[in-house]
Amino acid sequence: IEEKFDVIVVGAGMAGNAAALTLAQRGLKVLQLERGEYSGSKNVQGAILYADMLEKLIPDFREDAPLERHLVEQRFWMMDGRSHTGLHYRSDDFNEEKPNRYTIIRAQFDKWFSQKVREAGATVLCETTVTELAQDAYGKVIGVRTDRVDGEIHADVVVLAEGVNGLLGTRAHLRERPKPDKVALAVKEMHFLPRETIEARFNLKGDEGVVIEAAGTISRGMTGMGFIYANKECISLGIGCLVSDFQRTGETPYGLLDRFKRHPSVAPLIEGSEVKEYAAHLIPEGGFKAIPQLYGEGWVVVGDAAQLNNAIHREGSNLAMTSGRIAAEAIFQVKSRKDPMTAENLSLYKTMLDQSFVIKDLKKYKDMPALMHTQSQNFFLTYPELVSKAMQNFLRVDGTPKVDKEKTTFKSFIKARSWSGLFGDAFRLARAWR
Ligand code: FAD
Questions:
Q1: Model pTM?
Q2: Does 12 sit in the ligand 1 pocket, CB within 6 Å?
Q3: Which atom of ligand 1 has the smallest separation from the CA of 50?
């Protein structure tokens, strides 16, 4: 391709689409390249969509976006082999005119999002893999090389929205490859059931939705979580753990998923379903300390490629959309001033991102990934088992005086963790949470 673009966006996921849309809406000449057959064909997510971040890009998205269910209930399960201890929040307030969170199916949603990008005026080329960044003699990024015959394409700035692997950035030495203890490998299945069966099993009516996040012995002492999300006619179910933990333990993702599905709390929810999709994908989990350099000479990096993922709150797509939008706004400002796309000028992106919830949230939990990793045996095995035994002891009515039950429970915690262990865990958790 001979013509030069203002911006090339690599990737048509949440971050890339947000960036390309914002840039095209501002009148910039945008080329977006996506290796998949269509936007969304390669993408995996639970998936919860956070409306606020999409509203900032497409205010009337509810009119035609392919949404599944709006969430009225969130459940958190702490699981052991046969039980779960739950924390539920359900509110009719979430049955509002403009709901705050929805379940979506990424393949459908990204296709719709990509159509909006095209309508805004961007050129979107699918089935085109960017093989490397084109750099000048001084290392400035001046465009990309692709697997198409007409190979190299030039632009003033390249937005790297290539997802968690970030191979292009790594190959160009702009960032390090994510380490195995900073990424989780998640596997997910889609279980199809009649709509009314899903609504009966999850206590839903109309388009109401519920999500279940689950942690505990299901990850066998590894740092990880499971999830069950109700869509209209299917249930999305998956589990993920740190790659380094899989390496260390020899456990397999499909082995974990299989056990999760057979758990007595989970099996009745998916009984009789037909599995039509199986996917595996990485999730950035290193948090604030794993964020690479976000900009340089002629480039910025957004979304999962920049490791912008809040594993504690299970938020990723909203950070991706927000970083994509903010990067585009920064580029637009530099362009409007007719300034060159130097690292110094593009640092505006980082300044703006630092002021957003994206960096503020990740900074808040900056010590959490390391804590969860080093204490995984305790948080994902010992405590869930102790809590489950305590709950059972508390609920079972068997003639044992309550005061004796309390003593038994108390002793079981001390025996498993000791006084100093219990205080240490509480202190470390409180410090990492603040
Ligand atoms: P992606 O969505 O991964 O998009 C990257 C795009 O770049 C892809 O389309 C890819 O094909 C393309 N690409 C890559 N390399 C090239 C190349 N060389 N040339 C051209 N194109 C390329 N987040 C939430 O907010 N809510 C959830 O419920 C949730 N659940 C999740 C469940 C699972 C199992 C997983 C794996 C993730 C989940 N996430 C969730 C995280 C969320 O999916 C990501 O944070 C989000 O998709 C990141 O968007 P992105 O655009 O940065 O990357």
A1: 0.96
A2: yes
A3: 25
Which residue's CA is minimally distant from atom 49 of ligand 1? 14
* 325 CB within 6 A, ligand 1: no
pLDDT in tens, 122-151: 999 999 999 999 999 999 999 999 998 877
* Residue of the CA atom closest to atom 18 of ligand 1: 130
pLDDT in the model for residue 1: 62
ipTM score for this prediction = 0.99
Which two three-digit tokens encode residue 75? 């459940």
CATH topology of domain 183-284: D-Amino Acid Oxidase; Chain A, domain 2 (3.30.9)
Q: Is the CB of 281 under 6 A from ligand 1?
A: yes
Query: Which atom from ligand 1 is nearest to the alpha carbon of 128?
Result: 20
Q: Cα–Cα distance between 243 and 183 in angstroms, integer?
A: 6
Q: Is the CB of 208 under 6 A from ligand 1?
A: no
- Closest Cα to atom 53 of ligand 1: 163
197-230 per-position pLDDT tens digit:
999 999 999 999 999 999 999 999 999 999 999 9
Ligand 1 contact, 188 CB (< 6 A): yes
The token duo for 92 is 């009719």
Domain residue spans of the chain: 5-66+105-178+287-364, 183-284, 369-433
pLDDT at res. 421: 93
